[in-house]
Amino acid sequence: xxxxxxxxxxxxxxxxxxxxxxxxxxxxxxxxxxxxxxxxxxxxxxxxxxxxxxxxxxxxxxxxxxxxxxxxxxxxxxxxxxxxxxxxxxxxxxxxxxxxxxxxxxxxxxxxxxxxxxxxxxxxxxxxxxxxxxxxxxxxxxxxxxxxxxxxxxxxxxxxxxxxxx
Length: 166
Prior knowledge:
The chain is α+β, with helices and mostly antiparallel strands. It is 23% helix and 34% strand.
């Protein structure tokens, strides 16, 4: 196992394959994808009394307003849903949280989060697929993927199955 230029863990896999994983509270989730970049995040459900404060600091204003319209329990759960979705996309992209949680915006559409807007470095938001998951009781998560041939590649990184060259 190695790391990309931006610290993304990289497994030695056959050409065209990508892998990502997340762990929380003794639970491990692993995702593999062929001809796509993949990311996953899982988190243990627990009260997050500072959810709105953190959302105002790190999420987009529209997302923070959406959370503020919820009751405390729903705001805590939906904060976690947004966090997992954002982190899964950013992990698939390869830059992780350092890229900035406010550089992508999700909207709730019929109870499902959809990537509505994002920094051009993430590509077309319509090309991203995000699936919310419940990997075990008491946990929430999200899986994100993007066709690796269509995704802008972060500087200094290779697409899955390609070798990075200096």
